[in-house]
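testing teh design pipeline on a random one, pls ignore if ur not involved
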């Protein structure tokens, strides 16, 4: 007797594309965040400059603005962390 339903596809092990190391020093993590956000902001800006007049650019401009604000907050957190470290409140 022939099988009507084919065999299911084999299970492929799922490995994460990116993992965060639990022991990562917070200022190092913030530095990485800043670089990633800078890349997002620059990519959006470049796209908007090369596609003037396209519909939806205002939404991309909003995303670029959000990335810039996130970078500013990350800079502030990094500066605050360093200030606390200098005062001896963080080892």
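output:
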């Amino acid at each position: 007797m022939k099988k009507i339903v084919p065999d299911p596809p084999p299970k492929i092990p799922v490995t994460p594309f990116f993992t965060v190391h639990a022991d990562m020093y917070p200022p190092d993590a913030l530095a990485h965040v800043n670089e990633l956000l800078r890349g997002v902001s620059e990519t959006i800006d470049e796209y908007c400059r090369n596609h003037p007049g396209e519909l939806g650019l205002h939404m991309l401009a909003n995303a670029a603005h959000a990335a810039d604000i996130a970078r500013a907050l990350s800079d502030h957190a990094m500066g605050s962390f360093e200030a606390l470290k200098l005062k001896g409140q963080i080892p």
